Amino acid sequence: MTDAPAPLIAGDPIDPPPPALTLPAFIRQRARRHPASPAIVDGVSGRGIDYGELDRLIGRCAAGLARRGFRQGDTLLLFGPNSPEWVIVALGAMSLGGRATGANPSYTAAELRHQISDSGAHIAFTVPGLVETVREAADGTDCERIVVDGEADGCLSLADLLSGNEPEPAIAQDPDAIALLPYSSGTTGLPKGVMLTHRAIVANVCQTLQSFHWSDDVVSLGFLPMFHAMGFSLVTLCTLAHGAKLVTLPRFEPQSFLAAIATHRVTDLIAVPPVMQFLAAHPLVDQFDLGSLRITGTGGAPMSAALEARVTQRLGCPCSQGYGMTEVTAAATLGLAPETRRPGSVGRLAPGVQLRVVDPATGRELGRGEEGELWIRTPARLVGYLNNPQATAELVTPDGWIRTGDLGLVDADGFVFITDRLKELIKVKGLQVAPAELEALLLTHPSVADVAVIGRPDERAGELPVAYVVARGALDTDALKAWLAERVAPHKQLADVVTIDAIPKNPSGKLLRRVLRTQDAARAQPSA
Fold first, then answer.
1. Are 226 and 213 in contact (CB under 8 A)?
2. Which of 280, 284, 222, 225 is nearest to 258 (CA)?
3. How would DSSP label each residue in 394-436?
4. How far is CA 270 from CA 112, 179, 302, in A?
5. What is the DSSP letter of 227?
6. What angle, rounded to 10 degrees, do the helices at 435-442 and 477-485 form?
7. Taking the model in full, what pTM does it have?
8. In this predicted structure, which of 137-151, 163-177, 252-266, 488-502 has the lowest mean pLDDT?
């Protein structure tokens, strides 16, 4: 007698079904219902725009881009901090059938060049202080025009781009066209362009809004970077689709972050675990009135039930977790509503999401309470990785299941728990660091014969990159850290370099990172 197959785990249906609209059409349709309501407020200056003005500026941006040759299928790169203008330019480009790709503004020119080249970006949008980085990165690529939010020699100002009075061009109507190209390392390897259609993004917004019934007076804080799935899809787009107010901050800085919550009476806060740690423990928090907060949610990396409880107690409002990945637009599970909240859990499946738990060694489907790799199927999934069919095939099964690379289980009540991960990514303050990227750079250093990079647990950052190095002769570890720091963004810099005689590998030559993580944890333990 054979065992019965484990039951498929599924969220509720999406009700009503997501509309067959492009993302800008979806947002602008919502905007026209309440044109006088506040849409986006710059949290630093207090400058704000209402929904009527947001609608108008998206159209003006589309017209200005079209006048300068931007066409359907072209790519526009956004390289700058969060701002109302970031949103306007991204949606303006998508309105023409173009693709928007956001890049981390802390990238070096070499890191940015990879994204410009791989995405085929034709235009870059940035701020004056980052223009020279964009110029250096774009040299020799197809990116021939820079639009700047301000003034810079040789660049087109955003004000000029928006200033035309010609009719708005015909708006692209295909919901199955690629709209967004965020870059993700997936389950392993170097950053890859995640091809998300308008239909997928709209579906994920609808999934998220249905999972948590927002009130009419919601105020969200948009401090998570907009180049990231959580910052753009989960916070920005869901807030605007609901018709609520979004307060933007260029980055997380403790004083301005807390001041924005207090000043603008933020009600809903989505953050990453290191920020939750700050809220739970930092004495500065007591200097601000955060009583407007009604809900806090976190994602990007696992967080303990104990930290959830400390945040809840200190802020006087519920703290919960969700789970997702760029490859499913943003969220796959959510714990924001009371019925989806359980300590230590990432909530229940979002509407329209299906889940399987699979034994990674045998491929056998597992039942409730059994730990295995989580496989997800959702209408919000990617089409594939840009220019990388092999990586796409490794991620997505022929019948549409995404192998997440995360280990977890589902309890008897349908709550999902993340327990570990198979994938190699390091999560630093919610940002991805691909070990392979750092290893490739380190191997170009003359003192490095072999190397493996792992993540070391850290209370404030979640994890920090650590390099285990087989040296060629004498090695100055501090000098090697400084050498790498000149070549990568701050979140990719090494916290430690450890010399080792040989990198542990299996018979086929694959790095055994779990062995190194075990050794690293043992090194951190005090001697008996």
1. no
2. 284
3. HHB-TTS-EEEEEEEEE-TTS-EEEEEESS--EEETTEEE-HH
4. 27, 24, 14
5. T
6. 110
7. 0.87
8. 163-177
The Cα 382–Cα 378 span in angstroms is: 9
Alpha-carbon distance of 369 to 412, in angstroms, equals: 7
Q: pLDDT tens digit string along 421-459?
A: 777 778 898 888 888 788 888 988 999 988 999 999 888
**Biggest alpha carbon–alpha carbon distance for the chain:** 76
Query: How many C-beta atoms lie closer than 10 Å to residue 92's C-beta?
Result: 27
pLDDT at 506: 65
- Both tokens of 123, joined, read 């235009």
Taking CA atoms, 246 is separated from 243, 401, 490, in Å, by 9, 33, 27
Q: Are the C-beta atoms of 523 and 497 separated by less than 8 Å? A: no
Separation of alpha carbons 464 and 431, rounded Å: 11
> Is residue 503 within 8 Å of 511, Cβ to Cβ?
yes
Whether the per-residue pLDDT at 139 is higher than 50: the answer is: yes
CB-CB neighbours of 528 under 10 Å: 3
| C-alpha–C-alpha distance, residues 326 and 264, integer Å | 29
pLDDT per position as a tens digit, 154-200: 999 999 999 988 888 888 799 999 999 999 876 666 789 999 999 99
Distance of CA 254 to the CA centre of its chain: 21
* Amino acid residing at 308: E
**Dihedral pair phi/psi, residue 330, rounded to 5°:** -165, -80
Strands 431-433 vs 426-428: parallel, antiparallel or unpaired: antiparallel
Q: Which region, left, alpha or beta, applies to residue 375 given φ > 0 means left and ψ of -120 to 50 means alpha?
A: beta
Cα angle 471-476-480, degrees, rounded to a multiple of 5: 85
CA distances to 298, 305, 439 from 276, in Å = 8, 12, 31
Structural tokens at position 472: 């060629």
Decide the pairing of beta strands 348-349 and 331-334: antiparallel
Cα angle: 425, vertex 427, 432; to 5 degrees: 65
What are the structure tokens assigned to 292, written together? 């407007």
Question: Where do we find the tokens 């802390």?
Answer: 106
Question: What is the residue whose two structure tokens read 């000098």?
Answer: 479
Q: Which residues of 12-31 are buried (b: 16+ CB within 10 A; e: fewer)?
A: eebeeebeebbbbbbbbebb
SS3 track for 171-190: CCCCCCCEEECCEECCCCCC
